[in-house]
Amino acid sequence: MTLQITSGSKAIAWTAANCGIEVVAAYPITPSTVIPEELSRIQPEHGYEFIPVESELSAISAVIGASAAGTRAFTATSSQGLLLMTEALYNASGMRLPIVMVVANRAIGGPLNIWNDWSDAMALRDSGWIQLFCKNKQEAVDTLVQSFQIAEQTDVPVMVCFEGFYLTHEVSPVEIPDKEKCLSLLPPRKPKHTLDPANPELIGAFAGPAYFQKYKQEQLAEFNNSMPAIEKAAQDFENKFGRKQIPLIEETSLQDADYAVFTMSSLAETTEELVETLRTQGKKIGTLRLKCFRPFPKKLVAAALKNKKGVVVIEKDASSNDQGSLSHDLKEALYENNVQLPVLSCVCGLGGKDVRQKDIERAITELAQGKTETIWL
């Protein structure tokens, strides 16, 4: 691996190129703009097709066509760009196309805001795409390599989510996986069915009432059964590159904790630092980080939180049911696995609002005092 001092966006672009991508189609949108810019700049070195398009809908449509033709296809976007792709995202997953897309998470307007929260990816949480939320640049780079393996083994598209500005624009050391090693994990695609003029086939056919529900049932069953492939890809990467990987969830100081903080993405690092400080004060607090948001590992999460006195959910999104989407999914997981404990949903960080350690500590204190109504930090 090559150690580089660079931004998260450039690291993602270089890693995607090293994964043997064959087609890239993208339209620039802040804060993911540098990813397609850099992929365009380095295209002559790697030889993939770079398609500059007029919108994000065109970008995802182009990679759908490329993937259906049997190539390894990639794109990147953020916020309103991801929403503009919505129609085609459902087609991509429904057609079982192993596309990989990086989402530099950014708030959805209005009002207009270019800063970070999770509302863009959360809006597409039921689109049939695997969603992996990364807590730092290095994990985003490593997860990108794994995502091509996951997608191509399961025929389920993958979103690699990492935080806009905090991680896309941060300049710090990051190890870029070598192309030779990446390709040893990612052999050329050999799909069973492709769009090939020499052997005409129909992909994305019309389905009437007699077949549509059965197809969706099978699609979602295979989607929910993709977790073993996610775990295998993480283990394969770890064996090849020697760096510890987290496929689904990560526990920090959780085993003997009285209270847990449940969160994702870069908020996990903030929380882990706070927990370390609180531990020195004799407070038994732990962190449970969710990396794989979709499919949601309900049994693993419920087992990790069993026997705790309560859990605080810290999340950068809000939904119309007066709690965040992460809180909703957590409560469902606990209920289905017969785990009963108080849950305090904390909405924070919307539109780039700073989330401080003292805010998270306040939430832990309020939970310990019996509060379970949603709070905004």
In short:
With 377 residues, the chain is α/β, with parallel strands linked by helices. It has helices spanning 8-18, 34-41, 43-46, 56-68, 79-84, 86-94, 119-123, 137-154, 179-185, 209-224, 227-241, 267-280, 298-305, 325-336, 357-368; strands at 2-7, 23-26, 49-52, 73-77, 100-105, 130-133, 158-163, 171-176, 249-252, 259-263, 285-290, 292-294, 310-315, 343-347, 375-376.
CATH architecture of the largest domain: 3-Layer(aba) Sandwich
CATH superfamily of the largest domain: Thiamin diphosphate (ThDP)-binding fold, Pyr/PP domains
Number of helices: 15
Q: Please tell me what the overall shape is.
A: globular
Structural class: alpha/beta
Major sheet, described briefly? 7 strands, mixed
How would you describe this protein?
The chain is of the alpha/beta class and 377 residues long. It folds into two domains: 2-240, Thiamin diphosphate (ThDP)-binding fold, Pyr/PP domains (Rossmann fold, 3-Layer(aba) Sandwich); 249-376, Rossmann fold (3-Layer(aba) Sandwich). 42% of the residues lie in helices and 19% in strands. The protein is built from 15 helices and 15 strands. It has helices at residues 8-18, 34-41, 43-46, 56-68, 79-84, 86-94, 119-123, 137-154, 179-185, 209-224, 227-241, 267-280, 298-305, 325-336, 357-368; strands spanning 2-7, 23-26, 49-52, 73-77, 100-105, 130-133, 158-163, 171-176, 249-252, 259-263, 285-290, 292-294, 310-315, 343-347, 375-376. Strands 3-2-4-5-7-6-12 form a seven-stranded mixed sheet, sandwiched between helices. It is globular.
